Amino acid sequence: MTAAQLAAFVLTLSAAFIVPGPAMLLALRNTLTGGLGAGIATGAGLALVAAGWTAAALAGLGALFVLVPWAFAAMKLAGALYLLWIAVQIWRDAGSPLGQGPSDGRRRWSRAFGSGLLVNLANPKSVLFSAAVLVVIFPAGLGFGDATFVVAAHFLLEILGYTLLALILSRPAARAAYLGAKLWIDRTAGAVLGALGLRLLLSR
Questions:
Q1: Is the separation of the CB atoms in 150 and 59 below 8 Å?
Q2: Does the keyword Transmembrane helix belong to this entry (predicted)?
């Protein structure tokens, strides 16, 4: 593995990171509703699974999905249903005030971390994307040390990106703006997540 290949990998992941999707949408909303800690916890959950998909791609899971299409279909169905469930929850609670109890901070962060894990687990296409990126950028048969470094680099990039996002959005001005338009922001977020769930459910 060369420095040029690693740089290409980082640039590709950075471009994919800023494209709006369920992971980014969840990180945005959890930070605005739960604050900095919830935003970072969400990012940690998202980053852990994103790096896990890269590890799975390196281990050949993408090829397994091609050989055993029903396994991919089952994971895709479960993921789509989970995204639709989240969409319904967000839409339903759009008009509800935010909880203010300071004592539930750890529980809120735990829920945020879990939601990050589940949202990225809900998108099995990520392993196919990772496999495609790895095939294009890196030579076949990466050694264990190089593969571990690639997975670690992916995790570090994701966690840094979501932490920066949380730092920006947890500022009082951003939270105040969210609270002023909570109903419509949450309804929009629910509609977008629902559309993404349907797209995942209906895509081939």
A1: no
A2: yes
